[in-house]
Design brief:
Layout: E1 33-34, E2 46-52, E3 56-64, E4 69-78, E5 81-87, E6 100-108, E7 111-119
Antiparallel strand pairs: 1-2, 2-5, 3-4, 3-6, 6-7
C-alpha cells in the first residue's frame, strides 16, 4: 500500500519475506515549456528541449531575423513528455546557414513561444 521512489542504486530491504514488484512510470511535465537551446552560442550543433504536459500537434520552426523560415525541425503529433531536438545549423535543403541570430518557435496547440539563439562560425 505504500509508494517508494527508487533511483540509481536505491533499494528496499525487508526481512518479512514480502515480494516487491517495481514498475517504471513516466513522469509528465506540468506545463508547456520551451527551454533555451544549449549550447548558446553554438557551432556546429545545438539542442532545443521542450516539455509537453499533454498530447499535442507540435511544430518547431527555425527563422532568421527577417522572419524567413529556415527549417522545420518538428511537425507531428507527439505524446506528453520531455523532448529534445538537435539542430545542425542547416536549412531545409541541408545547406549550412550563415553565422548570426536565429529564432526558434514552438506551436503546440494553444502554446506558442519563441526564443533566440546565436550561431557562431
Amino acid at each position: 500500500g505504500s509508494a517508494y521512489i527508487l533511483d540509481g542504486s536505491s533499494e528496499i530491504i525487508t526481512t518479512s519475506g514480502y515480494k516487491f514488484y517495481l514498475s517504471r512510470k513516466q513522469v509528465i511535465p506540468e506545463t508547456f515549456t520551451l527551454h533555451q537551446n544549449f549550447p548558446n552560442p553554438f557551432n556546429p550543433v545545438t539542442n532545443i528541449s521542450y516539455d509537453l504536459p499533454k498530447d499535442s500537434d507540435v511544430r518547431l520552426i527555425i527563422y532568421d531575423m527577417l522572419g524567413n523560415q529556415i527549417t522545420t525541425l518538428v511537425n507531428t503529433a507527439q505524446q506528453a513528455g520531455f523532448r529534445v531536438v538537435r539542430w545542425d545549423g542547416t536549412d531545409s535543403f541541408g545547406i549550412d546557414v550563415s553565422a548570426g541570430v536565429y529564432l526558434y518557435q514552438i506551436d503546440a496547440g494553444e502554446f506558442v513561444q519563441t526564443r533566440k539563439m546565436v550561431l557562431l562560425k
